[in-house]
Amino acid sequence: MKVLVPVKRVIDYNVKVRVKPDGSGVDLANVKMSMNPFDEISVEEAIRLREAGKAEEIVLVSIGPKQAQETIRTGLAMGADRGILVETDAPVEPLAVAKILKAIVEAEEPGLVILGKQAIDDDSNQTGQMLAALLGWAQGTFASKLEFKDDGTADVTREIDGGLQTINLKMPLVLTTDLRLNEPRYASLPNIMKAKKKPIDMKTVDDYGVDIAPRLEVVSTVEPPAREAGVRVESVAELVDKLKNEAGVL
Amino acid sequence: MTTLLVAEHDNASLSDQTAKALTAAADLGGDVHILVAGKDARPAAEAAAKLSGVAKVLLANGDVLLNGLAEPTAALILGLADGYDAIVAPATTAGKNVLPRVAALLDVMQVSDITRVVAPDTFERPIYAGNAIQTVKALDAKKVITVRTASFQAAGEGGSAAIEEIAVPEDPGLSGFVGNRLSESERPELTSAKIIVSGGRGVGSDENFEKVITPLADKLGAAVGASRAAVDAGFAPNDWQVGQTGKVVAPELYIACGISGAIQHLAGMKDSKVIVAINKDEDAPIFQVADYGLVADLFDVIPELEAELDKVKG
């Protein structure tokens, strides 16, 4: 089975995000960029499936600027086999991403697509579900466990409000990863060197005939209202007194 | 215009997430119909009909809808979509699972996690874990929206909408339900609790969570939360996680114990009315958002806090 893993280049999760003073967006200049953390979990899951003999080939896809090649190389260094970069400098919304991915799925015919449940830049949490819908496939979102069954289906355990849910899905399927599915590995130096020789196909949006014109017009981007620091209390008695008599929450 | 609000419920009762999302749906300006999709879900539909400002309740009862699986639920909503200008759901795991599937098949770009309705086509939503607030105008004719319920007051009761039973479409046959393992707890739900006691890495172990954090929560009738660091360390289950990658909460009182205050955690709780931070590191960022900060070892002061609460409440 072939596994397709879309990966997104985003601001590193450790970087403090700065909003541009003119309200036009978030400042991406000279900021450390990394693979979306949920996508690292996706790549790791695909590699573990191959190590367990359940997958043969792992193909990474990224949609973004030329530098998204680095994101693909990161995944290749972890152990994926090859990459596809759909190069564009324009912002691409989840719906358009799902349409491009659908075209790639139809060309590559994977048995499984693993995506992060959300990207930590726009926090949309949509692309996997949209891709499953467009393909007419089953979806296992927010997954913390994936288990293939003998009858050609898969059991997916999902992180839901209030606990866990296990569902049984027909293959092929779309999986979106939650935090506890696995812990991604670090790439070793020899694997980083090896990854430089792995192939990345360069494509454009036009190759897939998808209209990526934005459907959401960004009116403004601003800093959230700051919350002011309050007071330090010296004792538990003072804390309880303030909560009761000043804040009125007890 | 008419808006379809997809209810969050467990068949027997309606979640208050629905009443909060109703306030956002009503802000769009049109009539609001609530869809209750489930099995033997009339009690939930009756509760929905009592909410103030609801024009009609649609009740779809069927075996295939019992567990809210994405594929049949999306097929049901899609079949109703023609009659509506907007489709709205609370941004719970259920809403997040189903609605993008509907949006894609309608060829609509969904607006996720809105925190304010600026105009019927313009919304505020947090991005970058709440480090920026973006205002977006949705250009698609039909709107598909999920609502960050912590940002909206729950609609009141006093309505008496009619309940209309509707047909259930055929199961797409892609998915089946195996089982749920829900945390059994007498404590309130995190997303609707008035008080939350939350523990971080400083709690040190799952045993300490049981010994220190949960007794304080129970004394206050509070829900228990945890930081991502505490969840990653195995001290607490993931469904307790508060933050960008967990639940977003806005209780009256949030007590953060041994939580440093990483950006990703603050994104999930900074809209709480009153924040208390207990941490022995006086430089912890959590103190920058706390109304009341106590620099102390949580293991010393939480038992003391319990005793003091007994005195106050006694």
From TrEMBL, chain A:
The keyword tRNA processing does not apply. Keywords: Electron transport, Transport. Residues 23-212 form the Electron transfer flavoprotein alpha/beta-subunit N-terminal domain. This is Electron transfer flavoprotein subunit beta. One of its GO terms (molecular function) is electron transfer activity. The electron transfer flavoprotein serves as a specific electron acceptor for other dehydrogenases. It transfers the electrons to the main respiratory chain via ETF-ubiquinone oxidoreductase (ETF dehydrogenase). It comes from Rhodobium orientis. Belongs to the ETF beta-subunit/FixA family. Heterodimer of an alpha and a beta subunit. GO terms for biological process: carboxylic acid catabolic process. It holds the Pfam family ETF. Its cofactor is AMP. The keyword Magnesium does not apply. It comes from the Bacteria.
From TrEMBL, chain B:
GO terms for molecular function: electron transfer activity; flavin adenine dinucleotide binding. PROSITE patterns: ETF_ALPHA. FAD binds at residues 201, 227-228, 241-245, 258-265, 279. The keyword Flavoprotein applies. Its cofactor is FAD. Residues 3-181 form the Electron transfer flavoprotein alpha/beta-subunit N-terminal domain. The keyword Flavoprotein applies. Binds 1 FAD per dimer. The electron transfer flavoprotein serves as a specific electron acceptor for other dehydrogenases. It transfers the electrons to the main respiratory chain via ETF-ubiquinone oxidoreductase (ETF dehydrogenase). Belongs to the ETF alpha-subunit/FixB family. This is Electron transfer flavoprotein subunit alpha. It comes from Rhodobium orientis.
